[in-house]
Design goal:
This protein is an alpha/beta fold. It has 2 domains: about 170 residues, HUPs (Rossmann fold), CATH 3.40.50.620; about 100 residues, Pantoate-beta-alanine ligase, C-terminal domain (Pantoate--beta-alanine Ligase, Chain: A,domain 2, 2-Layer Sandwich), CATH 3.30.1300.10. About 40% of the residues lie in helices and about 20% in strands. The strands form 2 sheets. Strands 1-4-3-2-5-6 form a 6-stranded parallel sheet, with helices on both faces. Strands 7-8-9 form a 3-stranded antiparallel sheet. Helix 7 links the parallel strand 5 and strand 6. Helix 6 crosses helix 7 and helix 9 runs antiparallel to helix 10. It is globular. It starts with a strand and ends with a strand. Bound molecules: pantoate (PAF). The site of pantoate (PAF) has 10 residues, from strand 2 and helix 6.
C-alpha cells in the first residue's frame, strides 16, 4: 500500500492501475477509522481492483464552533487499519493541497441539505459536496462507498452525482453498530463512560419504533413522539431532531409508506451523535 499527499502523485498511481485494467474503488474518510470505515474498504476490495482511501479532515465542512481543531487524527493507525482491510493507496493531502490560495469554487446541493443535520449546521453539506466533488475528480473512481450512518450525506452525494452527471456509482453500506447497538462513529471517543452508556438510548428508540411500524402503526407523528419520549427519559441526552422522512427526497411524511428514513440527532455533553433507520413498508 502506498501513502501519498499530493494530487499529482495520486493521479499518476491511479492512472497506472487503470492502465493495468483495474477498476477503481474509493472510500473518502476523515480518518479516525473504525469498523464502519473498514467495512467500506473491505466491500470496495471485493467489488473493485484498486482501492483508494482518502484521509482528510476537511475544514470547509466544520462550522466555526465545531470540532475541526480537536477532531481525532492518527495517520499511522489509520494507515495500518486501511492496509489490513485491503486499501491499495492512501491519499492524505493537507489543506493547502486541497484548497490552495485563491480557491473560490464550491458545489452546493439545494433542497435536501436544508433539513435534518443541515438545519443546525449551515454550510456543512456545501463543504462536504465541494470536497467530495474534488476528490471524485482526483481519484476518478468507478465506485465510491459511503456509510448509511450518514444517511443525509449519502442522499446529498447521490443527488450531486445525478445532477452533475458524474460518471460513477455510489454504493451505500449498512450502519455498523457496537454490540449494544450504538452506531459506530469517530466522535464516540469524545463520550465519557456515563455518556457512552447513555447513548445506547438512540438505537434502542429506533429499534422500538421499527417494531411499532412492523406491528402496523403508520402515523409518522406517533412514531416521532414515541422516539422523543424514549430519548427524553435519558437525562444526559439532549435531542437535536427526530424526523420521519421519505428516504430519497428527505421530505417529512405524515403517513408511513414506501421507503422511509427515521433520522435523529442528540447531544451527550458536547458530542453530537446521529443515528437512523431505513425501513420499507
Ligand atoms: O463522512 C465523512 O467522513 C466526510 O464527510 C467525507 C465524506 C469524507 C467528506 O469530508
Amino acid at each position: 500500500m502506498q501513502i501519498v499527499t499530493t494530487i499529482r502523485e495520486t493521479r499518476q498511481i491511479i492512472h497506472n492501475a487503470s492502465r493495468e485494467g483495474k477498476t477503481i474503488g474509493f472510500v473518502p474518510t476523515m480518518g479516525s477509522l473504525h469498523e464502519g470505515h473498514l467495512s467500506l474498504i473491505r466491500r470496495a476490495k471485493t467489488e473493485t481492483g484498486f482501492v483508494v482511501v482518502s484521509i482528510f479532515v476537511n475544514p470547509t465542512q466544520f462550522g466555526k464552533d465545531e470540532d475541526f481543531e480537536t477532531y481525532p487524527r492518527n495517520l499511522d493507525r489509520d494507515a495500518a487499519l486501511s492496509e489490513s482491510a485491503g486499501a491499495d493507496l492512501i491519499f492524505c493531502p493537507d489543506a493547502g493541497e486541497m484548497y490552495p490560495k485563491g480557491f473560490q469554487t464550491y458545489v452546493e446541493v439545494a433542497e435536501i441539505t436544508t433539513g435534518l443535520c443541515g438545519a443546525a449546521r449551515p454550510g456543512h453539506f456545501k463543504g462536504v459536496t465541494t470536497v467530495v466533488a474534488k476528490l471524485f475528480n482526483i481519484v476518478k473512481p468507478h465506485k465510491a462507498y459511503f456509510g448509511q450512518k450518514d444517511a443525509q450525506q449519502a442522499a446529498v452525494i447521490e443527488h450531486m452525482v445525478r445532477d452533475l452527471d458524474m460518471d460513477l456509482d455510489i454504493v451505500r453500506c449498512p450502519i455498523v453498530r457496537e454490540p449494544d447497538g450504538l452506531a459506530m462513529s469517530s466522535r464516540n471517543v469524545y463520550l465519557s463512560a456515563r455518556e457512552r452508556n447513555a447513548a445506547v438510548v438512540l438505537s434502542q428508540s429506533l429499534f422500538q419504533a421499527e417494531e411499532m411500524i412492523r406491528q402496523g402503526i403508520r402515523d409518522a407523528s406517533e412514531i416521532r413522539q414515541y422516539i422523543a419520549s424514549v430519548i427524553q427519559k435519558e437525562p444526559l441526552a439532549q435531542i437535536g431532531y427526530v424526523e420521519v422522512v421519505n428516504a430519497v427526497s428527505l421530505k417529512k411524511v405524515d403517513f408511513i409508506a414506501g421507503q422511509i428514513l427515521i433520522a435523529l440527532a442528540a447531544k451527550f455533553g458536547n458530542t453530537n451523535l446521529i443515528d437512523n433507520l431505513c425501513i420499507e413498508v
